[in-house]
Amino acid sequence: MARRWTNRYRAVEMDGIAASYDVVVVGAGPAGIMAAVESARTARSVLLVEASSLPREKSCGGMLNLYSRRALEPYGTVPEEMILDPKWIDFRYYHIDREVKKPTQVRFLNVDRGMFDEWLLSFLPANVHVACGVRLADLWQSPVKARVLLKGLRADGSRAEASVDCSYLIAADGPRATVRERLGLRPFDRYITVQEYASIERGAIEPYFDCIYSKEFDRDYGIGYIMPKGDVAIIGSIFYPGSRDVERKHEDVLDRLRDIYPFGESVKRETWIAAHLRRPADLVAGKGRVLLAGEGGGFLSCTSGEGISFALNSGIMAGKAVAAAFEDDSLVASSALECYERALKPMKKNLAFRMGMFPIMNNYACKNLACLVPTPLVSKMTERL
């Protein structure tokens, strides 16, 4: 039986939302939670709103790489209860057409994603109010404050809305990026992801996070991945923006993969979206009193799709920047965004490099060429991607 972590935050319904907070955070994924944790160190009141229930159902592999684990070290050890079998999974490229596998030394901790989010929520202090089933509908800002329009349901099921003022807004609202669009920034093109959970016998699949590719699959198919997680395996298909009939195309992929992997019956399927990042200009820290963290700011890997480490780190940076602004009242209003921009420079540089590499990695001829590259070199390159 999994242990339930103690929550110190205050849960509020729509009618319990106050007219003003020092900070409003939109989105209670890793980026939003960490932004709320850090900003609450000096802010007197923080409102964290989440459109769904908590802990969230998130279509995600639940793999913690080295950078995720480092980001979490100050907050405690990852609890054993949430770690799945196999505990450690290494990243491996698998070119199905050429039957070439390239294992790397890039290692992930294999966790239950729902429990992981629940554990993160336990970090929130008592001065954070959390409102579930509440979404941001609009926002405005002036040099002295931001104002958000929130919509949700009351306890009796009736619709309600609330206008809330804040000194800073931190948006961690994922690939839909509502806040980003309200700021007048270019919306993302979006991949479509289909994630299948199929039953497996424990130990039947090697302990690898397989990144798979085959020209046999539909032209809309970008890349796929497979990973064992206890009694199930996750089989993911990523389709290019604008793709249609993706579930049927995903079924075609499954039919082919069942000839290779010992998958049992499918137990669940999820469909979601992911931001398609193409240029460094897609990476935006925010505007005025609004800071963007996680995927809403463009902070995820366009080459591997890995997003948890970027969400955690950008959320921590955004929260610390806002906390620093509250700590020193003499700082000008733009200080939080400027501080955040400085902190993000290494991350932006890293992601810009990945964007430059993506067209090369996504080229079929280059995928074939990679089959001839020595495995240690493939592993070394993967560490940067």
Automatic annotation (TrEMBL):
InterPro entries (alphabetical): FAD-bd, FAD/NAD-bd_sf, Geranylgeranyl_reductase
FAD-binding domain residues: 159-329
An MF annotation (GO) of this entry: FAD binding
Pfam family, one: FAD_binding_3
Protein name: FAD-binding domain-containing protein
Source species: Collinsella tanakaei YIT 12063
